[in-house]
Amino acid sequence: MLIESLLLSAILFAVGVAGVLLRRNAIVMFMCIELMLNAVNLFLVAVSRYAGIEGQVFVIFVMTVAAAEAAVGLAIIISIFRHYESVDVRNFRLLRW
Amino acid sequence: MVGVPVLDSMLALVQEATTHERAYVPFLPSWMILLPFIGFVINGAVGYLAPDRRKLVSAVGPGVLGLSFLVAAVNLVLLIAAHDAEPVIRSYWTWMEVGQLRIEAALQLDQLSVMMALVVTCVSFIIHIYSIGYMGEDPGYARYFSFLNLFVFFMLVLVLAANFPLMFVGWEGVGLCSYLLIGFWFTEPAKADAGQKAFIVNRIGDFGFLAAMFALFAYLGTLDFQAVFAIAPRGFEYGGAAVTLITLFLFLGCTGKSAQIPLYVWLPDAMHGPTPVSALIHAATMVTAGVYLVARTGVLFALAPLSMTVVAVVGAVTALFAATIAVQQFDIKRVIAYSTISQLGYMFLAVGVGAYTAGIFHLATHAFFKALLFLASGAVIHAMHHALEHAGEEAGEDVTQDMRNMGGLKAYLPTSFRTAWIGALALAGVFPLAGFFSKDEIIWSAGARGQTLLWVLAVLTALLTAGYITRWLVMVFHGASRVGEGARRYLRAAPSVMLVALVLLAVGSVVSGWVNVPEALPLLPEFTWLHQFLHPSFEAAEHVLVEHMGEPAHVAPLGGGEGTWAVLSTTAAILVVIFTFMALRGKRYLSAREAAEPTGLWRLLYRKWYVDELYDLVIVKPFKALCMVSWRVIDQGLIDGALVDGVAYTTRFGGWVVSRFQTGYVGTYVLIIVIGILIILGAVAL
């Protein structure tokens, strides 16, 4: 079971990375980040079955952080949308040199 | 008041000391130094807070010195009473203690230092009195007196210090005061420049003093006079490189402070200061500090025959060299300034041949007659300035001090005229005035110790001295008046307070020579008194000299005894004075504005052998060029450009390059993060 679980988490992670890299929609990128977090969670749970309970403890923490991040991230995206009426990240390039 | 009980206790002490012989116990030695310092503080405060309280300044300035002089006098009497007393060291606190080095704030009271302190306080007291009249109308009156008091304080520290570093404090302090007082009228650039010139030239000499101190400490491990002189004869090899180097460095310090070749150039320019300052600092006291230093460190010099020769040769050559320049100067003060350099040369000649007493003797007598000459010219300048100003004519320094604009002043300034003659004859070495005894002893000592060449130089200088000082007298006081008709009506004698000082110094110029009547001229029941009195201070040095060089021969290079030569020299001096007087009395001088520059040899002398120009070419110009290189190339180019700005430019360029990655696109950042993680993972995997 372990190999399959790890494979699945790797695939999910890769999909998440590819999504963040390739998509331009902020919401989608955000969801891809969540996907990556959850891929890690899956990996930790899978490994904890063999290596000890700490992995599951970590998962709890990751989920907490992810929830907070979701709240902050979505709030940012909403306020950006109110300003630009768009969530395409190519439009947001004010913060640069 | 403090004064009265102090006076009473002084009298009691003197009485007791003269009645029975007893060990020397210094009388209030620290007060001798503290009093001028108190004067400095009070006058400085007045100068800041209430510059118009002239009466207070006039009382405090000379007053503290009068008291200081009394203390010094009592100490001298006590020392005389206690025959051949050992030096007394009074230590007040430990100034610094670093490893082996322990320096006390300590005073050394012995025959030499107390003698010097007496000369210093006496002459400065008289000059302070004179200054009341001379500087009376100056807006910086209080400032002037505070500087003058501070100067005497430092001079006494220099003279009474018991170790090299404390002496150096005084040494630097008098240099500072000299700078402050030369540039006293600092709003005029020439005067401020003259102050700086003195300061900078003196720094060169001070380097020598410092280097000598370091070397002494490295070799002997102590800087206290008593310890150094006790260890030196065993610690140093006679004529060895170490002691020769140390003494030569010390002498470099002396050439700076005492205006000897090659560092004498600052002294003539120092004449830009007020005239009493020239009299006090640049004739009577500070410039003699070098002679005092050589005499004080006589043991070290005695151990280094090469250094002794250098001192004597430099002294004799400077004496002649400066005397030749004095012959063709027209500034009333510059003639005397060059004369001072010349007389200081005599003193160095004396201490250089090992005749320490003769050097100190000439120092003391010279302090009186040279201060007198300066103050007399001050009275003349004061009168000229006053007259020209009232007549509405230009009254700048170059007009009022040029002797070509004077002449025939004896009718207007009788006291200055008479006292100036006394001072001039004393300088010329005419019997029975002070200069005769002291100068004659120096010339005699040089001859008696086999320095034939130096003896010839000294004799030539003596003749020149009589010549140029007579020329000075004639140009200022005799002949037809070259003061303009308009100004002549306003010529007035100086205020009486100035005349009092002139008379006091004239008395000093007459009597001070009699303290050391040579054995060959039995004029007094007790001869060579000063020699015997100072003997304990120079005993060690003379012992070393006799041990290695033998007793001096008591004959002149051309044969004949001391008495013969004394008579010969004073006759020669009188003849030169009479001859010069006759030759120049009828001569018509053109006023400074009409006069052309002298020609031929005279121009060479008038231009001071072009030494200032030579120094400018050889030292100042290359130094300035070096400064330009340092400034433009090294500082602005290398340090500012390459280093400081270079770092800034590099950082900015680096920042610019990196900032290109901050595109503002989230996608780019993610890509970079991913690439970075891949690289790290790759590195870990490998």
Structure description:
The complex is a heterodimer of chains A (97) and B (686). Chain A is mainly alpha-helical. Chain A has a single domain (2-84), classed as Orthogonal Bundle (Helix Hairpins), CATH 1.10.287. Chain A is built from three helices and no strands. Chain A has helices at 2-22, 26-51, 54-84. The radius of gyration of chain A is 16 Å and the shape is elongated. Chain B has a two-stranded antiparallel ribbon with strand order 1-2. Helix content of chain B is 72%, strand content 3%. The radius of gyration of chain B is 30 Å and the shape is globular. Chain B is an all-alpha fold and 686 residues long. The longest helix of chain B is centred in the last third of the chain and has 49 residues, at 611-659. At the A-B interface, helix 1 of A face helix 27 of B.
Q: What's the SSE pattern of chain A?
A: HHH
Give the quaternary arrangement of the chains.
heterodimer
Give unreliable regions of chain A as ranges.
Answer: none
How many distinct helices of chain A? 3
Rg of chain A, nearest Å: 16 Å
Mean pLDDT of chain A: 91
- Which structural class is indicated by helix and strand composition of chain B? mainly alpha
Most extensive chain interface and residues per partner: A-B, 13 and 11 residues
Count of separate DSSP helical elements of chain B? 27
Order of strands side by side in the largest beta sheet of chain B? Answer: 1-2
Strand count, sense and closure of the main sheet of chain B?
2 strands, antiparallel
Low-pLDDT segments of chain B = none
First-residue to last-residue Cα separation of chain A: 49 Å
Shape of chain B: globular
Overall mean pLDDT of chain B? 89
Q: How many individual β-strands of chain B?
A: 2
Topology:
The complex is a heterodimer of chains A (97) and B (686).
Chain A: H1 2-22, H2 26-51, H3 54-84
Helix pairs in contact in A: 1-2, 2-3
Chain B: H1 3-19, H2 29-49, H3 54-81, E1 88-98, E2 101-109, H4 111-134, H5 141-160, H6 164-182, H7 189-220, H8 225-235, H9 241-257, H10 266-269, H11 275-284, H12 289-296, H13 298-303, H14 305-327, H15 332-352, H16 356-390, H17 397-400, H18 414-428, H19 434-448, H20 452-477, H21 485-488, H22 496-511, H23 529-549, H24 562-585, H25 600-606, H26 611-659, H27 666-685
Antiparallel strand pairs in B: 1-2
Helix pairs in contact in B: 1-3, 2-3, 2-5, 3-4, 3-5, 4-5, 4-11, 4-16, 4-22, 5-6, 6-7, 6-11, 7-9, 9-12, 9-14, 11-16, 12-15, 14-15, 14-20, 15-16, 15-19, 15-20, 16-18, 16-19, 16-22, 16-23, 18-20, 18-22, 19-20, 19-24, 20-24
